[in-house]
Design goal:
Blueprint lengths: L6 H11 L2 E5 L3 H13 L5 E4 L2 H7 L4 E7 L9 H11 L4 E6 L4 H9 L4 E4 L5 H49 L1
Parallel strand pairs: 1-2, 1-3, 3-4, 4-5
Helix pairs in contact: 1-6
Length: 175
């Protein structure tokens, strides 16, 4: 595996935003591979699940990236229904779907239902692409949060200025 180019960017974004990355796959080998990949890229604030109910129970607003295995062998959830449940609890979460299927109709369905990215497990450079997609998701989250932070600051300044104007008008009215 080549040197992780996004390593420091990840650490700074995750620390600055206090976010978590959740992944789910019912295959032990894939979960082990994801742990190794995250460790190699110094991603520390993550949890990997095998059970959709556990993920949904633990999901909170700080989780900004979910990596979902479409091929879940669960009677209650497949990739689409789990993604919809996640987005129902946290509409700002960026969901990256990973699957062994490469059907265009399936990929289009996921993207239309709100998936951020879709990646096939059979891709030659799966690990590199997954890290790139996580980085893109984090950048999108960071930009969105920065926008809202700037908006809130602007509203606060506007509120202060309006308060000063109202106070000045009230003082003029009383004198």
């Amino acid at each position: 595996m080549q040197a992780p180019e996004h390593k420091h960017k990840f650490k700074n974004m995750i620390k600055e935003l206090n976010i978590a990355i959740y992944a789910i796959d019912d295959d032990e080998g894939t979960r082990t591979s994801l742990k190794g990949l995250f460790k190699a890229h110094e991603i520390k604030n993550y949890t990997i699940y095998s059970n959709p109910e556990d993920l949904l129970e633990e999901l909170h607003k700080g989780v900004q990236v979910c990596i979902i295995d479409y091929d879940l062998k669960n009677p209650d959830y497949n990739g689409v229904t789990l993604m919809q449940a996640i987005l129902g609890k946290n509409k700002y979460c960026k969901c990256i779907i990973m699957s062994g299927f490469e059907e265009a109709k399936l990929i289009k369905n996921f993207l239309n239902c709100g998936a951020f990215r879709y990646i096939t497990k059979a891709e030659e450079h799966f690990s590199e692409h997954l890290i790139r997609y996580i980085n893109e998701a984090l950048e999108t989250v960071f930009e969105t949060m920065s926008f809202y932070s700037t908006l809130l600051e602007s509203l606060d300044v506007t509120k202060q200025k309006l308060s000063q104007i109202y106070k000045k008008q009230e003082d003029e009215r009383l004198h």
